[in-house]
Design goal:
Blueprint lengths: L8 E5 L3 H13 L3 E5 L2 H11 L3 E7 L7 H11 L5 E5 L6 H8 L3 E4 L4 H13 L3
Parallel strand pairs: 1-2, 1-3, 3-4, 4-5
């Protein structure tokens, strides 16, 4: 496997500072512009404001206050063709599986490597909706 670079804008949503900091650095190294949000409410506000430039949302589904499923539903209301890569430290079972069934563009388990992240982003952006 190799690192796949790209361009465009990605919204990274996670409530952990370390994940936001490392994720932002990794995604930037891949050539993308990175926007961040630490809650569902913040993610929806950023997405609403930047919906025409955001190509992908990397969404941690375990957030305080608002579930990943709820955030995904709201993102779909704002822009039905949005691509969402579900991110979690847990396995792909449960809510992550439910989000994939709803139409999310992929799943990545934390912690992830730069190579793995580049592949998952590439796949999410280049797979038919």
């Amino acid at each position: 496997m190799e690192i796949i670079k790209g361009e465009g804008t990605i919204l990274l949503v996670d409530d952990q500072d370390l994940v936001i900091d490392v994720g932002r650095d990794m995604i930037s190294m891949l050539g993308y512009t990175v926007l961040t949000a630490k809650s569902g409410e913040e993610a929806l506000a950023v997405f609403q404001e930047q919906k025409d430039v955001i190509q992908l949302v990397v969404l941690d589904y375990m957030l305080p206050g608002m579930s990943g499923s709820e955030i995904y539903d709201r993102l779909i209301e704002i822009r039905p063709a949005v691509r969402v890569l579900v991110s979690s430290g847990d396995s792909k079972d449960g809510e992550a599986a439910a989000l994939l069934e709803k139409g999310c563009s992929g799943y990545i388990q934390k912690p992830f490597s730069l190579i793995e992240l580049s592949q998952k982003i590439h796949d999410a952006l280049h797979t038919a909706v």
